[in-house]
Write a structure and sequence with these properties.
CATH topology: Aminopeptidase
Helix content: 25-40%
CATH architecture: 3-Layer(aba) Sandwich
CATH class: Alpha Beta
Strand order of the largest sheet: 1-2-3-4
Oligomer: single chain
Number of domains: 1
Number of strands: 4
CATH superfamily: Gcn5-related N-acetyltransferase (GNAT)
């Protein structure tokens, strides 16, 4: 729970909307209490350098899979292997549950596509995401 503020801050660095400390703590608490979610934090000393959230995605019409819900590495720490190590943890966790690991990535993040390709992910499909208010 002590990492909630740092996780929220790093999410903001990636362009995601940051939230109040109370909401950040509640989100982290929900993940930590869930049996279908995992979150790994990469730290150096007491400073959070990156994090990865993965969860089990269950589908009625197709096989379940594990999905990376978020992966953020501090801009000052990129290209140091932190993201790779976090993804390796997620892969091991998914395999341990008999699941493949999936990640969705914004089409604008070309460098991120190269990162995942280097980690043996392949583009499986292109899709649109529709939200309600």
């Amino acid at each position: 729970m002590a990492d909630a503020a740092a996780i929220n801050h790093l999410a903001g660095d990636m362009g995601y909307k940051t939230v109040t400390p109370e909401i950040a703590e509640q989100r982290l608490r929900d993940i930590l209490e869930s049996t279908g979610d995992e979150l790994w934090v990469a730290e150096e000393g007491d400073q959070v350098k990156g994090w990865l959230h993965a969860f089990v995605a269950r589908r009625a019409g197709s096989s379940s899979f594990a999905e990376i819900g978020g992966l953020v590495v501090s801009a000052s720490c990129r290209r140091q292997g932190i993201g790779r190590r976090l993804v390796d943890h997620a892969k091991q966790w998914a395999r341990g549950q008999g699941l493949r690991l999936r990640v969705r990535c914004n089409t604008k993040r070309i460098e991120t596509h190269a990162f995942y390709n280097a980690l043996d992910f392949t583009a499986a499909k292109t899709q649109l995401v529709f939200d309600t208010d």
